[in-house]
Amino acid sequence: MSGDTNIYMSMKRTARLALLAAALCAALAVAVAWPRAQMIAASSPAAWAATPDKVARGAYLARAGDCMACHTARGGAAYAGGRVLDTPYGRLVAPNITPDRATGIGAWSADDFWNALHNGIAPGGRLLYPAFPYPNYTKVTRADSDALFAYLRSLNAVRQANTPHALDFPYRLQPALAAWRLLYFTPGEYVPRPAPAPASARADAWNRGAYLVEGLGHCGACHSARNAMGASSAVLDGGLLATSGWYAPALTAGGEAGPGEWRGADLVQLLRTGVAPGHAVSGPMAEVIEQSLQYLSEPDLAAMALYLASLPAPPGRHAAPEPAPAPPDALMQHGARLYGQHCADCHGKDGRGVDEVYPPLAGNRMVTTPEPVNAIRIVLNGGFPPATAGNPRPYGMPPYSPILNDDDVAAVISYVRASWGNAARAITPSEVNRYRAVPLD
Ligand code: HEC
Ligand code: HEC
Ligand code: HEC
């Protein structure tokens, strides 16, 4: 679960290095030969022509893959790169993928592009970092890769030199990356498989959903736990975003976001608009919906919902977490007073909210996740669901960090987590304090 990232963060630097050194030795020998072998395998001649149809399909797929979000700096030219991605291993800067020959990918062939998307290898054999979610994009078909390439080639060329990454030692070394890839990356296109009951009657839709969720949608890049080396599990069992500190809840059955227990129509509405009865997304998920999911077709969103609803609980995960002991009376009273003063106007005295305007807090599993970080962040910083065609003027929540101290925030969230049938553990002022200074995204 989310603990895994914490384990990584708390591992002694020396332990991390030792772990990596071991992997490094194993990989040095193959570091050179292996990417070359993959490149040869990938460069079968492809009949490639940028028809208008292909460009339009590529534009849609680029939305599905949320390519622009990472490859555009705030206020910068679309796809010209420059957005900084902080990772536990240092800082990466997304490159320019406009068709500029000198600074973008204008000199690339469709094979080069496929090799990047499918194998994570840039021209010349340079291995790419998996912050570019090619461990997911590897599932994309060659036809879709070509359409994406056709679309990127149709963009205005922007001359903007790439900013070099600033990764820590030893992560900046290509052999370290080669080692990582040997251990954790297997290239492979999505292969349709039998859908589990009850989705089996709609196997095509289920497979389309799986293709989008596991591939371009790269949901697992956030919603899966990562191990000590930053590799995701294949199941969407919930993950803590290592540097921004948001928690992306489990999408599997049993507990957290658990789409299996939603009405299918509600899940589709959430993915399209950012709000649904009982739900409102915030933070990184709001960005995913604003920039990517709201543009997907209704059948594609329905297919994704069908697939998500079929995900079984990971082994050992119980349907409902054990109720935690009730917080002390004094804390509950302090929390109740603050709630009445600051929160009840919108979320209601009974915590039931107002449908699709103010999310309910009673029975809201996003509020009672074992990992309380999202509730802390939203109370400190406030937030808006995304502005989408389906919900163009979302209602927001004001930030409370200027007016509530750590004790107050801990009390009001503990109260919310333990009222109206909610039964999650109390949180501490130091948990609140940790997120005062963390940047929003
Ligand atoms: C989560 C952020 C993120 C998303 C989403 C993302 N990328 Fe990237 N991409 C990166 C980063 C970071 C790199 C740099 C990797 C490196 O240099 O090792 C990169 C590298 C690339 C490269 C290699 C460019 C070069 O000059 O080496 C291509 C091509 C690319 N991305 C295309 C895409 C496409 C197409 C999509 C959407 C389907 C996409 N990216 C989505 C972060 C992202
Ligand atoms: C950049 C990280 C990121 C990516 C990529 C991402 N998510 Fe999320 N998601 C989050 C975070 C963080 C939350 C918790 C915050 C919230 O609920 O708004 C979340 C929440 C959710 C929820 C629960 C919302 C609720 O209120 O109950 C669903 C459902 C969901 N995501 C589905 C998806 C799907 C499907 C994809 C892939 C198409 C995806 N997410 C991709 C970060 C991400
Ligand atoms: C002006 C109306 C308003 C007030 C006052 C308000 N909220 Fe909110 N709250 C919202 C809205 C709107 C959202 C959805 C925000 C989003 O999706 O980014 C929200 C979201 C939340 C969430 C996340 C729910 C979820 O599904 O992820 C929590 C927890 C929360 N509020 C707690 C509080 C607490 C505690 C207070 C008082 C200290 C408070 N709110 C005051 C409007 C309000």
Low-confidence parts? 1-12, 25-46
The first-to-last residue Cα distance is 21 Å
Task: Characterize the biggest β-sheet.
Answer: 3 strands, antiparallel
Spatial extent as radius of gyration: 23 Å
Q: List the bound ligands.
A: heme C
Helix/strand structural class: mainly alpha
Number of strands: 9
Bulk shape: globular
Proportion of beta-strand residues: under 5%
- The percentage helix is 40-55%
| Strand order across the largest sheet | 1-2-5
Please report the number of helical segments. Answer: 19
Structure, explained:
With 441 residues, the chain is mostly helical. It is built from 19 helices and nine strands. The protein has helices at residues 3-10, 13-31, 33-42, 52-65, 67-71, 110-119, 134-137, 142-154, 174-184, 203-214, 220-223, 264-273, 283-291, 298-309, 329-342, 344-347, 373-381, 406-417, 429-434, and strands at residues 84-87, 90-93, 121-122, 126-127, 166-167, 239-240, 247-248, 275-276, 279-280. The strands form four sheets. Strands 1-2-5 form a three-stranded antiparallel β-sheet, with no helix packed on it. Strands 3-4 form a two-stranded antiparallel ribbon. A two-stranded antiparallel sheet has the order 6-7. A hairpin with a 2-residue loop joins strand 1 (84-87) and strand 2. It is globular and about 65 Å long.
